Amino acid sequence: xxxxxxxxxxxxxxxxxxxxxxxxxxxxxxxxxxxxxxxxxxxxxxxxxxxxxxxxxxxxxxxxxxxxxxxxxxxx
Length: 76
Known about the structure:
Blueprint: E1 18-19, H1 21-28, H2 32-40, E2 48-51, E3 54-58, H3 59-75
Antiparallel strand pairs: 1-3, 2-3
């Protein structure tokens, strides 16, 4: 029996991963105290709460924030 191949027109699912605060600091170049101030001001991606004591950030959201800062800086 021939194998059935299913073709979909749906866009591919973009992969993302959750990263901890140390990785956010490394990718963004800012420290946690400044990061939380930016989150309170609505200027940095909010963390995803996994439990009462565990938060992680979307790597794609953090990299998007960094890219936006680079774009703003080159427009000046």
